[in-house]
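Milestone 3.1: sequence recovery, worked example.
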């Protein structure tokens, strides 16, 4: 094991939570529960260091899955009754997070080839992605929606300011405001169809839908490995439809944008955030699109010492120390680096991977970092910042 791998494993073990019927890695410090996309990221690292625990962690994610297929973004295994107070329901939240579980399950299989694990999770995964593709794609345009900023995983991003137009307190009171936004959902008893019909925040995001396309492809690989040929073709077809919708409908000629839909209103959110780079992960990204994205990345985002900041420094509300508003996050870099590999941008990928590795080596596994100084901010010993280990394992020797 390399030094970095040893430190990563120590961090993940420090945050380990085990009970009679659950196993997970908490994100770190103040977070005590299991978070959906965090756990999927942990599994991507643990598959190299402790695959048995990675399987248990993914398994625990399904504990509060509903018959509809829905999986919550927070599972409160240790004190499920307290959720009644916070969420008005037992055991978990009623929101989703980026749908990245199939990729983690498939990546784990690529390391340990445990078909029984695939076989056990496949029906649950199927229900989950069918839920995302139907209930969460209300208008059936092959782009699913988030209906709360917390669902995006980029909680306080400058992208969400449109929803709070004219209310300057967004920066200071966001946590209360976001919690208040869940109250109508409690009144609807977390009925997802009704939530989709009535939500005042309703966004089809670039990053979320790129991740969906990748995960539908992972579903195709899982189905194929299980000998389910017609399922595999169906998932593959769905992945292609989402990919096409992102590349055509979310492209504005210069960059990728989010769609904001409420009632009959249809608007675009055009903010300079690294969400625009997620389509680098898509195999059929057009040459012209790639050229523009690379130019934006180099000229607007790589100008800081420790990229990639979660908002371009040119954005009026860019803040190098604030949560998702300009700080650098390892999981965002993770997808951008993989996207650069996909696009055969060898040099740029290498630079960004070197910088990200140096950042976690000198500052430790923090929740996020100041893009100018590299100072670690937020929670320390933060679990998903160990993703660098998976990147180093994946790094192609030649692309
Ligand atoms: C914050 C992040 C979210 C993450 C959670 C736990 O809410 O914005 O993406 O899943 O913390 O780390």
């Amino acid at each position: 094991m390399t030094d970095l791998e040893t430190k990563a494993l120590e961090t993940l073990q420090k945050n380990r939570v085990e009970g009679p019927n659950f196993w997970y890695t908490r994100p770190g410090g103040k977070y005590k529960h299991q978070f959906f996309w965090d756990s999927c990221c942990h599994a991507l690292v643990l598959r190299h260091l402790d695959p048995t625990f990675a399987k248990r962690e993914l398994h625990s994610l399904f504990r509060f899955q509903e018959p509809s297929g829905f999986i919550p973004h927070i599972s409160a295994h240790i004190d499920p009754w307290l959720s009644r107070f916070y969420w008005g329901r037992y055991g978990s939240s009623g929101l989703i997070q980026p749908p990245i579980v199939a990729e983690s399950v498939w990546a784990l299989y690529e390391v340990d080839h445990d078909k029984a694990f695939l076989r056990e999770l496949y029906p649950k995964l199927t229900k989950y992605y069918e839920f995302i593709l139907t209930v969460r794609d209300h208008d059936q345009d092959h782009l699913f929606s988030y209906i709360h900023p917390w669902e995006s995983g980029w909680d306080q991003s400058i992208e969400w300011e449109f929803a709070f137009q004219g209310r300057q307190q967004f920066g200071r009171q966001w946590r209360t405001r976001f919690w208040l936004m869940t109250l109508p959902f409690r009144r609807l008893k977390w009925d997802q169809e009704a939530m989709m019909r009535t939500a005042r925040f309703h966004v089809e995001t670039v990053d979320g839908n790129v991740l969906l396309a990748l995960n539908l492809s992972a579903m195709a690989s899982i189905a194929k490995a299980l000998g389910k040929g017609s399922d595999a073709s169906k998932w593959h077809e769905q992945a292609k439809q989402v990919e096409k919708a992102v590349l055509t409908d979310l492209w504005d000629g210069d960059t990728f944008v989010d769609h904001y839909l409420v009632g009959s209103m249809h608007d675009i959110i055009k903010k300079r955030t690294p969400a625009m780079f997620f389509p680098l992960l898509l195999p059929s990204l057009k040459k012209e699109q790639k050229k523009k994205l690379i130019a934006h990345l180099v000229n607007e985002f790589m100008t800081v010492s420790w990229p990639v900041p979660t908002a371009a420094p040119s954005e009026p509300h860019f803040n190098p120390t604030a949560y998702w508003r300009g700080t650098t996050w390892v999981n965002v870099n993770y997808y951008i680096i993989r996207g650069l590999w996909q696009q055969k941008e060898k040099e740029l990928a290498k630079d960004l991977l070197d910088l990200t590795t140096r950042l976690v080596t000198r500052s430790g596994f923090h929740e996020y970092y100041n893009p100018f100084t590299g100072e670690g901010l937020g929670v320390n010993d933060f679990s998903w910042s160990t993703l660098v280990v998976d990147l180093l394992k994946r790094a192609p020797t030649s692309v």
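The first helix runs from residue 3 to 14. The longest strand covers residues 258-262.
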